[in-house]
Amino acid sequence: MAATDKEDQVDGGQQDNELHSTRLLSVVDVERTFQAGGAPLRVLKGLHMELRHGQLVMLRGRSGSGKTTLLNCLGGLDTPSKGEIWFNGKPVHQLNDNERTHIRRKEMGFIFQAFALMPLLSAWENVELSLRMAGTPRSEWKERVAYCLELVGLEKRMHHRPFELSGGEQQRVAIAKAIAHKPILLLADEPTAELDSNMSAQIMAVFQNIIRTEQVTICMTTHDPTILEVADHVYEMVDGKFV
Ligand SMILES: Nc1ncnc2c1ncn2[C@@H]1O[C@H](COP(=O)(O)OP(=O)(O)OP(=O)(O)O)[C@@H](O)[C@H]1O
């Protein structure tokens, strides 16, 4: 099931071991079949996986292997055709739309194309928007927005709009936006796509930093073999299955 697992090698001490020992998310025999055109298309074919608190987990695979479909199921944006997804003790596969939306807003953060930055809003306003969406009290916004933008190294670009920022800087705003409401799980679809290797390494350093400082767990998809080494665990996907 696992291609690599660094968990046992990491000398993280007792505190890290305790953090890692708690299961945040479990995927049990998940399948997803789409009815596209005539014949059913089986995209996920009986997957098992788990995420533990504080891990950085990567889903790796070729285009079309099913990574985004799985990530959508993990985030409650799509529902498996079969199998179970348990998140923080809750059966996501059995929840209705409202319940899943609530979990998404309160407990998850997304770095997906579909949740990209609002082009007319500044970095500050973009991050503030996610606090508004999550129902965070207005009195907490200012401090939290400043903190998150500093955390991703954008303290000097807070009032720039997306078109005034580089690709890597825009991705940092997206990270700040995704973590502002203090999610426990951050899902990221190809967060380093379109960035050069230097920028990608910086984004991964930001991810490692927020895992430590924000107690978040990260699951991301990637094509990029050069960033795999920072993962605690890599799931390799081929044609809807882990190998
Ligand atoms: N809503 C849908 N209806 C029909 N087919 C779909 C749907 N969503 C995804 N697929 C199909 O499922 C397969 C896997 O798609 P998915 O986006 O999960 O792959 P991926 O591994 O994320 O690829 P990429 O790296 O290119 O993003 C593809 O063949 C795609 O056409």
Automatic annotation (TrEMBL):
<keyword id="KW-0547">Nucleotide-binding</keyword>
<dbReference type="InterPro" id="IPR027417">
    <property type="entry name" value="P-loop_NTPase"/>
</dbReference>
<dbReference type="InterPro" id="IPR015854">
    <property type="entry name" value="ABC_transpr_LolD-like"/>
</dbReference>
<dbReference type="InterPro" id="IPR017871">
    <property type="entry name" value="ABC_transporter-like_CS"/>
</dbReference>
<dbReference type="GO" id="GO:0022857">
    <property type="term" value="F:transmembrane transporter activity"/>
</dbReference>
<dbReference type="Pfam" id="PF00005">
    <property type="entry name" value="ABC_tran"/>
</dbReference>
<dbReference type="InterPro" id="IPR017911">
    <property type="entry name" value="MacB-like_ATP-bd"/>
</dbReference>
<keyword id="KW-0067">ATP-binding</keyword>
<dbReference type="InterPro" id="IPR003593">
    <property type="entry name" value="AAA+_ATPase"/>
</dbReference>
<dbReference type="GO" id="GO:0098796">
    <property type="term" value="C:membrane protein complex"/>
</dbReference>
<dbReference type="GO" id="GO:0005524">
    <property type="term" value="F:ATP binding"/>
</dbReference>
<dbReference type="GO" id="GO:0016887">
    <property type="term" value="F:ATP hydrolysis activity"/>
</dbReference>
<dbReference type="GO" id="GO:0005886">
    <property type="term" value="C:plasma membrane"/>
</dbReference>
<dbReference type="InterPro" id="IPR003439">
    <property type="entry name" value="ABC_transporter-like_ATP-bd"/>
</dbReference>
<protein>
    <submittedName>
        <fullName>Putative ABC transport system ATP-binding protein</fullName>
    </submittedName>
</protein>
<keyword id="KW-0813">Transport</keyword>
<feature type="domain" description="ABC transporter">
    <location>
        <begin position="25"/>
        <end position="243"/>
    </location>
</feature>
